[in-house]
Amino acid sequence: RYNSVMAKGERIIAISKFIANHIVENYGVNPKKINIAYRGIELGKFHPQLVNAERMVNMSKMLDLPDDRPVILLPSRLTRIKGPNVVIEALAHLKNKHVHCAIFGAKPENSHYQEELSDLAKKLGVEGMIRMHGPCKDMPAAYSLAAVAIAASVVPEGFGRMAAESQAMGCPTIATNIGAVPEVVLHGKTGWLVPPDDPIALAKAIDEALSMSDTQRANLATAAMAHVANSFSLENMCRVVLTTYEDLLAQRAGKKIKKKAKKK
C-alpha cells in the first residue's frame, strides 16, 4: 500500500526492467506507462584512464595490499543481504588460495557482524586471506587495483550500481544472477553471473577470472566498458527522465488546444 502511490502517475520511471516487471505484476500497471531509466554512472569519474598512479599507490597503502597476491574486492555495504559470508565461504573452495580479499563497509555499528564474519573466516581457515575496511572514498582507484570485484547480494536488487561501476572501470566482475543484475552484467560477455548464496559456484567464477590471460582480460574489459557506456551513462538516464516529462507536457498542451478548439 505504501509503494502503490508510486504507480499512480500518468507516467512511471523505473530504474530497470526488473522493477518495471515488478510494477506491472504487483500493481496492474499498463507497461506502456513505464519508461526505463537505468541508474546513471558518472563515466567522467569511473574510467581507468582517469586514475593516475599516485591515487593507486595511495589506495594500496591505505588498504595495506600485498604486492604478490591478486586482490579480490567486495565493495558493498557490510550487511547480510550483500553476502560477505558467501564470499568468505567461497575463499575456502578456491583452487588458487594465494589471494587477498578486501571487504569494505566496516563500521562501529556493524561490529557484531564483523566479529561473526571473522569467526567464520577462522573456522574455514581463510582468516589470513581477508581484511575488512571502512567505507572507501576512492572507489575508482580501488577497482583499478582489483583483479576481480564481486557483488554477492543474496536478495534481488533494483539495479546493481556496484556491478556497473566496476565494469566501467574494466574490472572483471562477478555478480549474483538475481534482480536487475542480469541486465547490468552480461554473463560470459562482460562478466560472470552466479546463483545467489552459492559459494562453490562463486569460487569457480573467481578461479576463472583469476586465470584469464592478459588478452582475455583486455577483451572482457573492453566489452564491459562499452556495455556500461551504451546503457548506464548519466547522460542516458537524464535523457530518458527529461524526455518523459517533455512527452507529458506535450500531451497536456495538446489536450488544452483540443479543448479550446471544441469551445470555438
- Judged by helices, strands and strand pairing, the structural class is alpha/beta
Order of helices and strands: EHEHEHEHEHEHEHEHHH
**Radius of gyration, whole Å:** 22 Å
Shape: elongated
- The number of helical elements comes to 10
Please give the oligomerization state of what you see: single chain
> What is the strand content?
5-15%
Low-confidence parts, pLDDT < 50 over ≥5 residues?
Answer: none
Average of per-residue pLDDT values: 93
Major sheet: arrangement of strands: 5-4-3-6-7-8
Q: Level of helix content?
A: 40-55%
Distance between the termini: 44 Å
Tell how many strands the DSSP assignment holds. 8
Largest sheet: 6 strands, parallel
Task: Name the features.
alpha/beta, 10 helices, elongated, six-stranded parallel β-sheet, 264 residues
Question: Can you walk through the features of this model?
Answer:
The chain has 264 residues and is α/β, with parallel strands linked by helices. It is 47% helix and 11% strand. It contains 10 helices and 8 strands. Strands 5-4-3-6-7-8 form a 6-stranded parallel beta sheet, sandwiched between helices. Helix 4 links the parallel strand 4 and strand 5. Helix 2 crosses helix 5, helix 3 crosses helix 8 and helix 6 crosses helix 9.
Give a nutshell description of this structure.
With 264 residues, this protein is α/β, with parallel strands linked by helices. It is built from ten helices and eight strands.
Please render the helix and strand layout as text.
Blueprint: E1 12-14, H1 17-27, E2 34-36, H2 53-63, E3 71-74, H3 84-91, E4 100-103, H4 111-124, E5 130-132, H5 139-145, E6 148-151, H6 161-168, E7 173-176, H7 181-184, E8 192-194, H8 199-210, H9 214-231, H10 234-263
Parallel strand pairs: 1-2, 3-4, 3-6, 4-5, 6-7, 7-8
Helix pairs in contact: 2-5, 3-4, 3-8, 6-9
